């Protein structure tokens, strides 16, 4: 079980690194109109999205294995705990955020993205807040 926890933490940290950095690239992208810089940022975003997909799937698979390794045949009781349901709801929101980030990249690529760099600075804080609450839920299991 320790190996599964290790892989889960590794993939979660890696996925969050992508969720933190991609919107930061969008801040830079929204501030520039220079064609070479836009092309470079599009390439960086594209490569980061590929990494984000890998870490997303690693997070998901390791999470399923971790729940089963912790709860075994009692997994159904385990996933009915209040803290776990709240955590899954936040993770579902982060998955939505993940897909929203990819959609934004497509808008930048098409030249149709309208949000300002200020909006992206605020948008960039969403996963940090979600992470704080998820970590609290996992450690404290308050309900």
UniProtKB/TrEMBL annotation:
Chief location category: membrane
Highest taxon listed in the record's lineage: Bacteria
Cofactor binding, note field: Binds 1 heme b (iron(II)-protoporphyrin IX) group per subunit.
Binding sites annotated in the UniProt record for heme: 8, 87
Keyword flag Disulfide bond: no
Reactions the enzyme catalyzes: protoporphyrinogen IX + 3 A = protoporphyrin IX + 3 AH2
Membrane topology: Multi-pass membrane protein
Pathway assigned to this chain's UniProt record: Porphyrin-containing compound metabolism; protoporphyrin-IX biosynthesis; protoporphyrin-IX from protoporphyrinogen-IX: step 1/1
PANTHER family from the UniProt entry: PROTOPORPHYRINOGEN IX OXIDASE, UPF0093 MEMBRANE PROTEIN SLR1790
Subunit structure comment from the entry: Homodimer.
Stated name of the protein: Protoporphyrinogen IX oxidase
Species whose genome carries this gene: Marinicella sediminis
